[in-house]
Specification:
- The strands form 2 sheets. Strands 1-5-4 form a 3-stranded mixed β-sheet, with helices on one face. The chain has a two-stranded antiparallel ribbon with strand order 2-3.
- Helix content is 36%, strand content 9%.
- The N terminus is likely disordered.
- The protein is mainly alpha-helical.
- The chain is built from 4 helices and 5 strands; from the N terminus they run H-H-H-E-H-E-E-E-E.
């Protein structure tokens, strides 16, 4: 769950980008009918081109938000199927464990859950 004045600024920035963008995908935003339980804000880093620094940007955003307010719970989800760049940048190794409810327990480093 991400709640802070920083995320408020990011939300306003994303909102203004959606309004000024001509691309249909950005104007729609995230689906409203499938919210993520326990998550207040989502920041998506995406590009149609490879090798432009999406993973680096996502890691730096997560670390920056966590550094601004230590009380925030910050998570990072990487959907990169071609390379383990985020685990490498976050200095993570191993496999996530499962809870008794069969839920994945994320690996954590630098205060970021991945």
């Amino acid at each position: 769950v991400i709640m802070s004045r920083v995320m408020g600024r990011v939300g306003r920035l994303a909102s203004s980008f959606r309004r000024s963008s001509t691309g249909g995908a950005m104007q729609r935003g995230l689906p409203k009918r499938w919210p993520i339980a326990g998550v207040k804000h989502v920041v998506v880093v995406a590009s149609g081109k490879g090798g432009v620094g999406k993973s680096t940007t996502a890691v730096n955003l997560a670390l920056g938000v966590a550094a601004v307010d230590k009380s925030l719970a910050v998570g990072l989800l990487d959907a990169d199927i071609y390379g383990p760049s985020v685990p490498r940048m976050m200095n993570l190794s191993g496999q996530p464990e499962l809870s008794k409810q069969d839920l994945m327990i994320p690996l954590t480093n630098y205060g970021i859950k991945w």
